[in-house]
């Protein structure tokens, strides 16, 4: 039963991301969005991929268990996943609380639409 709920939640997340992607795409001229390299996951502290940003590295997953360590706790406002991995932002440190899922090659330009602005405290591949 738990497996079925997890599958349905994942399917819903992936489906919604696919439907919403055209609505949250950045403008081609967005310099900050383009600063996120191919194959990376980038988290920005302003909407529309602006301001300071983090690029969590695949080889240092423990570093991203708590955004306080990076002076980024409760600051995330947009993100882009240009990687081939599914990344999650978590409401609390060390993957605690609710999560916001980013399937490969998705983006959200304004977390306010999802009630997630300035709420993320950790991230991981999920």
Automatic annotation (TrEMBL):
Gene3D superfamilies: Crystallins
SUPFAM superfamilies named in the record: gamma-Crystallin-like (SSF49695)
InterPro entries cross-referenced by the UniProt entry: G_crystallin-like, TAT_signal
Signal peptide: 1-31
Keyword Signal attached: yes
Keyword hit for Signal: yes
Species lineage: Bacteria, Bacillati, Actinomycetota, Actinomycetes, Micromonosporales
Keywords, comma-separated and alphabetical: Signal
Protein name: Peptidase inhibitor family I36
């Amino acid at each position: 039963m738990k497996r079925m709920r997890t599958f349905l939640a994942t399917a819903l997340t992936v489906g919604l991301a696919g439907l919403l992607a055209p609505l949250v795409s950045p403008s081609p001229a967005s310099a900050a969005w383009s600063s996120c390299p191919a194959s990376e996951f980038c988290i920005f502290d302003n909407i529309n991929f602006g301001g300071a940003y983090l690029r969590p590295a695949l080889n240092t997953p423990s570093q991203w268990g708590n955004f306080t360590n990076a002076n980024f706790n409760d600051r995330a406002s947009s993100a882009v996943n240009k990687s081939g991995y599914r990344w999650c932002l978590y409401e609390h440190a060390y993957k605690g609380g609710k999560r916001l899922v980013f399937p490969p090659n998705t983006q959200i330009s304004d977390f306010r639409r999802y009630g997630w602005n300035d709420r993320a405290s950790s991230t991981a591949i999920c």
